[in-house]
């Protein structure tokens, strides 16, 4: 028998829903996070057929489902799939697509769609997803022909993972899922990643030889364990000071003597000032976005500070800041090449590195805050309790600056959060971390505002038998907005106060473990009881509303706002945005979003 006819004979007729499930398996997708809908019932049936190869996680809200899939991509470097129903389901899940886009995370979002024959009739729950997601996804498409499912799913994985990773949105027309087709599955394609030009590495050596105050800035996604190890070997060997960008603490061991902190929201003002003194910046894997560059003010766009910009997509290099040297390469590819460079016996910047490290040690020391609960001391104590492979997930809000300032995450620990400032991320992300590796501790940091956005996803944790620990920082307000409110309209509290439930009783109603902590000394015993319970747990930390950030209070903001301001156009006046960024860190501790 000829090979081609024999192969065709082995291809069975399958409905589109089963073809899609098989296509996911063929591409190595092993988790689907979903809120079910009648618009993709046939796909759900297909997933049932492959349940021994692919885990379906039933979630309680579409935003939580897509956040879990995004966190999966952050932690593994591989895309998970999220599935939501048409119309409202897609709208609810859109926030996760925005996170994945701005955070450069590989993600697949499948949306059940109306029957193809009803298109453009404003049918029940009809949305044109190409228009809806066109500005936030890397690619948006719709499958109307079941025979094209393997091709489109394979291409979607390629788009989501190559270059700058990101989300792909795929709508699934309803009748297509039922159509019977004979089509072969497609496996992953092996594609060599972008490697740095050897001439560029030679040019990098020349720039380093002239530097006296260099600074390495790590960011972005697409880093593997091998890539992290290689870049660490290079940076430690050269004794280069290393900062990470906003919520990218997982990229570098914060306990090493050349780690100097983060450039992002709520950064140490002393580190920001020293960064302005740098005579060479190695921007590796980062886009050098708004948060990392303090509102695009940290460097001169024309290139007064020499920047070596390493990024896998050439379109991002020089997008805002003109580099002295642009290197098109994946973070892993660059790290492997840089590791091969010969380090100087005594780097000219050794004292500079020590100076920046001293700043990090000083800012991470616990101040004496008023009140019974000192969060800095609590976080120092928590750091000592964490196992070596713990995962810490973080939500958005002013509370999030506390763990970043007062904790140094070790090499095998992971700290992830939404770089786009989305609230409601931490709880779903911690659940995803436990689903990936149930034996690994996962601790979520979340404010009282963010917790009540997706805290109900703890039901998903119970349903699937995993036990994250959630720390709720309760100051009874939307803290970031209140901070900006007090700065711009002191004393005018409008829309930012919150009324909360008893968070310990909330988790106890599910059958979990709840604790309420009001003093520093209560925390570690409460945390140990939560761990020992083996159940999903919530520990409420009742914090002082007056301490609005790690560096300032509401009273201080009001006092600063009451001081006479220079008249517009005078020598003392400065643009509001620049003043906010360059002044005390309290001026910009969190994005204005929330």
Describe this entry's structure for a reader.
- By secondary structure, this protein is α/β, with parallel strands linked by helices.
- Helix content is 38%, strand content 16%.
- It contains 22 helices and 20 strands.
- The strands form four sheets. It has a six-stranded parallel beta sheet, with helices on both faces. Strands 11-10-9-12-13-14 form a six-stranded parallel beta sheet, with helices on both faces. A six-stranded parallel beta sheet has the order 16-15-17-18-20-19, sandwiched between helices.
- The longest helix is centred in the first third of the chain and has 16 residues, at 88-103.
Describe the structure using short key phrases.
single chain; Rossmann fold; 16% strand; 22 helices; 38% helix; 3 domains; alpha/beta; 6-stranded parallel β-sheet; 594 residues
What's the topology here?
Layout: H1 3-10, E1 14-15, H2 16-26, E2 31-34, H3 41-49, E3 55-58, H4 62-76, E4 81-84, H5 88-103, E5 107-113, H6 129-133, E6 139-143, H7 149-161, E7 167-173, E8 180-181, H8 198-210, E9 214-218, H9 225-237, E10 242-245, E11 259-263, H10 269-277, E12 280-284, E13 307-311, E14 325-328, H11 331-339, H12 350-364, H13 375-385, E15 391-394, H14 401-406, E16 414-416, H15 426-436, E17 442-447, H16 448-454, H17 458-464, E18 469-474, H18 479-488, H19 503-510, E19 513-517, H20 520-533, E20 537-542, H21 554-562, H22 576-582
Parallel strand pairs: 2-3, 2-4, 4-5, 5-7, 6-7, 9-10, 9-12, 10-11, 12-13, 13-14, 15-16, 15-17, 17-18, 18-20, 19-20
Antiparallel strand pairs: 1-8
Helix pairs in contact: 2-3, 2-7, 4-5, 4-15, 9-11, 13-20, 15-17, 18-21
């Amino acid at each position: 028998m000829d090979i081609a006819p024999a192969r065709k004979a082995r291809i069975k007729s399958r409905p589109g829903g089963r073809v899609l499930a098989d296509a996911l398996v063929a591409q190595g997708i092993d988790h689907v996070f979903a809120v079910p809908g009648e618009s993709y019932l046939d796909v759900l049936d297909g997933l049932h057929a492959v349940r021994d190869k692919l885990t379906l996680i039933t979630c309680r809200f579409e935003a939580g489902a897509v956040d879990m899939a995004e966190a999966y991509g952050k932690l593994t470097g591989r895309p998970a799939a999220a599935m939501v129903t048409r119309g409202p389901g897609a709208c609810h899940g859109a926030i996760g697509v925005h996170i994945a886009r701005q955070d450069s995370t590989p993600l697949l979002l499948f949306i059940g769609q109306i029957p193809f024959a009803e298109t453009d009739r404003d049918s029940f729950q009809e949305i044109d997803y190409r228009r809806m997601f066109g500005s936030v996804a890397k690619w948006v498409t719709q499958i109307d022909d079941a025979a094209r499912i393997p091709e489109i799913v394979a291409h979607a994985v390629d788009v989501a993972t190559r270059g700058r990773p990101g989300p792909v949105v795929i709508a699934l027309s309803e009748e297509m899922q039922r159509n019977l087709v004979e089509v072969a599955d497609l496996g992953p394609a092996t594609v060599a990643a972008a490697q740095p030009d050897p001439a560029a590495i030679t040019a990098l050596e020349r720039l380093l030889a002239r530097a006296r105050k260099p600074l390495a800035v790590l960011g972005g996604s697409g880093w593997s364990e091998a890539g992290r190890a290689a870049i660490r070997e290079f940076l430690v060997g050269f004794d280069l000071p290393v900062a990470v960008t906003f919520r990218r603490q997982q990229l570098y061991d914060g306990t090493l003597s050349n780690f100097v902190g983060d450039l992002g929201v709520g950064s140490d003002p002393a580190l920001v000032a020293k960064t302005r003194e740098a005579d060479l910046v190695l921007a590796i894997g980062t886009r050098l976005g708004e948060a990392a560059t303090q509102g695009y003010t940290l460097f001169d766009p024309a290139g007064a500070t020499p920047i070596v910009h390493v990024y896998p997509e050439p379109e991002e290099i020089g997008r805002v800041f003109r580099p002295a040297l642009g290197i098109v390469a994946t973070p892993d590819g660059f790290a492997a090449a840089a590791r091969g460079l010969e380090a100087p016996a005594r780097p000219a910047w050794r004292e500079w590195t020590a100076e920046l490290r001293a700043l990090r040690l000083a800012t991470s020391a616990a101040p004496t805050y008023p009140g019974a609960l000192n969060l800095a001391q609590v976080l120092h104590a928590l750091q000592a309790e964490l196992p070596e492979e713990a995962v810490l997930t973080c939500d958005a809000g002013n509370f999030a600056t506390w763990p970043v300032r007062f904790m140094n995450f070790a090499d095998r620990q992971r700290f992830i959060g939404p770089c786009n400032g989305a609230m409601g991320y931490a709880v779903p992300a911690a659940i995803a971390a436990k689903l990936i590796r149930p034996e690994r501790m996962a601790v979520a940091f979340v404010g009282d505002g963010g917790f009540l956005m997706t805290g109900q996803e703890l039901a998903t944790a119970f349903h699937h038998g995993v036990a994250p620990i959630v720390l709720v920082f309760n100051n009874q307000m939307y803290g970031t907005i209140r901070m900006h409110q007090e700065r711009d309209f002191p004393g005018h509290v409008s829309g930012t106060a919150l009324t909360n439930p008893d968070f310990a009783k909330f988790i106890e109603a599910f059958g979990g473990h709840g604790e309420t902590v009001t003093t520093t000394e209560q925390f570690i015993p409460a945390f140990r009881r939560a761990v020992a319970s083996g159940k999903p747990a919530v520990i409420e930390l009742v914090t002082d509303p007056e301490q609005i950030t790690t560096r300032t209070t509401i009273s201080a903001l009001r006092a600063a706002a009451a001081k006479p301001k220079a008249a517009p156009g005078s020598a003392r006046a400065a643009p509001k945005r620049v003043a906010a960024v360059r002044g005390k860190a309290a001026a910009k501790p969190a994005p204005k979003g929330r």
